[in-house]
Design brief:
This protein is of the alpha+beta class and about 500 residues long. It contains 15 helices and 18 strands. Helix 6 packs across helix 7. The protein is elongated and about 85 Å long. The relative contact order is 0.10.
Length: about 500
């Protein structure tokens, strides 16, 4: 088999010969009149009217049979067969020798059916519109090729039709979320990605430096605190769909940068949010044409409402026998986790250990959709306490396919209570917890001007795309996921 360098050399020679013959291999104008899909849909009418149409796209195959060459042309909408006949094209037929699989061409002609019933364009005129200098991959298989798919996503999209479908679905999903909220009079806004004080989640940020201001900034870990400033400012319904950055590990469900939808709704609480969540998913499934029952990684998910609700405390007690109301000492809980086979790092506090047990031994086994409600206060520094039990907060997570898809709560709008919780988080940071929430004085000042009762909602777009598209890893739903550099010596 010829090496890449040799194949590229042959294509460069063809390119040179084309230029010498007066052919512009990279023209700017294209006269396409139909897409492949349109040629397919209107085929009978085009044949009946003997209409000349022009297609444009990438050659995916070339099959010569004497004075006849068949080719498959593909554009974003699909593919269509071309037939190049020597007795039709005359001297121009020789130009086919200079074409390769991967080249882009423009082809004009009339449609007909072959003896085997294949819808085809009888090419009467064609032109090269972009010469490909590298051969396309022949096939994908094995772990090594999987890595290459992410590093060279453009090749993945050329060769893997399913990959392209996943990203079409993702785009429609985001449009559907936006349509749903704007239809309910939510205002789409943009908040800073560069922040002097990060916040809105329990996570470690990325740090960068602005030279002109000689100041360090953080890439946002959530838009939450800025969106709530807008509620203070008088907006009652706001949302943002945007990129989030967290300096955390990489796994099948974690990428350092990812997409979230967050919205905030004044004069609402977490119970209203649960009702709205069910309506949102009904809208999404209808728009995406996804059935109400799906299977994902062995989980059978039935979206029929109303969805089940269970408290965090009840779930832990039922699934692993842990009563969090009796948890007092960190070491005892660490021992309990070890007995369950849950790995605990030495710097983890009581809150992180509870969360780790929940994620590994409870959440991963839930098919959902399930609303887990009334989280403990120590896991929720920004949520409002429950009137019935001040050790719990009005918060829920929506679990689907073993993942947290939505995190939502009645927002804490008491500035004095919020200051106390920030101060507790600050103590945790001083003890070495780099994910604890910093104290944000500007946000506290905003709250002191008064924030109405508000409900807040966050949805992980990437994880939801994974479930609705049936993909196993977050890298398959992010066009350009974060990867270790090829020349990196770190392991």
């Amino acid at each position: 088999m010829a090496k890449l360098g040799e194949l590229r050399k042959v294509r460069l020679e063809k390119l040179s010969e084309l230029k010498k013959a007066g052919v512009n291999p990279y023209p700017s104008k294209v006269k396409r009149t139909y897409t492949s899909k349109q040629a397919e849909e209107f085929f009978d009418e085009l044949v009946k009217k003997k209409k000349v149409i022009t297609l444009a796209g990438r050659l995916m195959s070339l099959r010569e049979h004497g004075g006849l060459t068949f080719a498959n042309l593909r554009d974003e909408s699909g593919k269509f067969q071309l037939a190049f006949k020597k007795n039709t094209l005359g001297e121009n037929y020789k130009l086919l020798k200079k074409l390769d699989i991967g080249d882009f061409v423009e082809a004009s002609g009339k449609c007909f059916k072959t003896k085997l019933g294949q819808k085809t364009l009888n090419v009467s005129k064609f032109a090269l519109i972009s010469k490909s200098l590298r051969p396309l991959p022949e096939k994908w298989h094995g772990l090594k090729d999987q890595e290459l798919r992410y590093r060279k996503r453009y090749l993945d999209l050329i060769m893997n039709e399913k990959a392209k479908q996943v990203f079409h679905l993702r785009s429609v999903l985001i449009d559907s979320l936006r349509d749903f909220l704007t239809d309910k009079n939510f205002l789409e806004v943009e908040t800073p990605i560069l922040q002097q004080t990060f916040g809105g989640a329990v996570a470690k940020p990325f740090t960068t430096h602005h030279n002109a201001l000689d100041t360090d900034f953080y890439l946002r870990i959530a838009p939450e605190l800025y969106l709530k400033r807008l509620i203070v400012g008088g907006f009652e319904k706001v949302f943002e769909i945007g990129r989030i950055f967290r300096n955390e590990g990489i796994s099948t469900i974690h990428n350092p940068d990812f997409t979230m939808l967050e919205f905030y709704w004044a004069y609402a609480d977490y119970e209203k949010l649960m009702e709205l969540t069910e309506k949102m998913f009904k809208h999404l499934l209808k728009r995406l044409k996804i059935p109400g029952k799906i299977e994902y990684q062995g989980h059978k998910i039935n979206f029929k409402a109303p969805w089940q609700k269970v408290t965090f405390k009840e779930l832990l007690q039922d699934k692993v026998g842990l009563d969090i109301t009796k948890v007092k000492k960190r070491d005892e809980l660490a021992g309990f986790a070890k007995d369950l086979g849950v790995k605990i790092d030495p710097e983890m506090g009581l809150d992180k250990i509870v969360d780790e047990i929940f994620k590994k031994k409870v959440r991963a086994k839930i098919a959902g959709p399930l609303f887990i409600t009334n989280y403990p206060l120590f896991l929720s520094p920004l949520a409002k306490k429950r009137a019935e039990d001040s050790k719990e907060v009005e918060r829920y997570q929506l679990i689907l396919g073993g993942f947290e898809i939505v995190n939502a709560y009645s927002e804490l709008n008491d500035p004095l209570d919020q200051r106390e919780r920030f101060e507790e988080q600050l103590k945790m940071r001083q003890k070495g917890d780099q994910e604890a929430h910093p104290l944000d004085e500007d946000y506290l000042e905003a709250m002191e001007y008064g924030m109405p009762p508000t409900a807040g909602f966050g949805l992980g777009v990437d994880r939801l795309t994974m479930i609705l598209s049936g993909t196993d890893t977050i890298r398959d739903v992010i066009l350009f996921p974060v990867l270790k550099p090829k020349n990196s010596k770190k392991r």
